Amino acid sequence: MTETRRGRPRSFDREAALEQALLTFWERGYDATSVADLTTSLGIGAPSLYAAFGDKRKLFEEVVQRYQDTHGAFTARALAEESTARAAIERILREAATQYTEPEHARGCLIISAAQNTIPASADVADRLRRIRRTGRDVLRDRIQGDVDAGLLPDDTDAAALATFFAATIQGMSQQARDGASRDDLMAVATTAMSVWR
What we know:
- The chain has ten helices and no strands.
- The protein is mostly helical.
């Protein structure tokens, strides 16, 4: 993306730039990524960045949505395509093990790791990601409870506790991946976690 003297790119692929911004935030986290980091990784000047995306916070909001629609979409696909909560959750865990260790991008999950240890000025960013994670947990809970109501799981199944357990497992897998755990390591975590099902 080459700059003209007026700061506007001669050819600007907004989708490619958004993906590059996603990779930068994913690697560094929200607060540790500066506007200078973004302009360097995108190959554009600050005026073009602001013209295309607004400020850093607005760009990050787009990045989060793009992540959910692309790299992080395996959860929604599993829940939509699998016939039972158990099958969906096992698929989520195994696909997380694969996705979190892909060499083409940062390890772990952007939604889990991008706003850790934020400064007070970024509290709203951290809160947004926290709400997304809570929503993900609640979706798991509702799917499990649906199977209880349908007679696929015992009546005394604690859907909320199971959902919290699996949400915590997924978050832990993300951090383990950031710390260098291998795909096989995370697959073993998935296998162990699934042993809680009766």
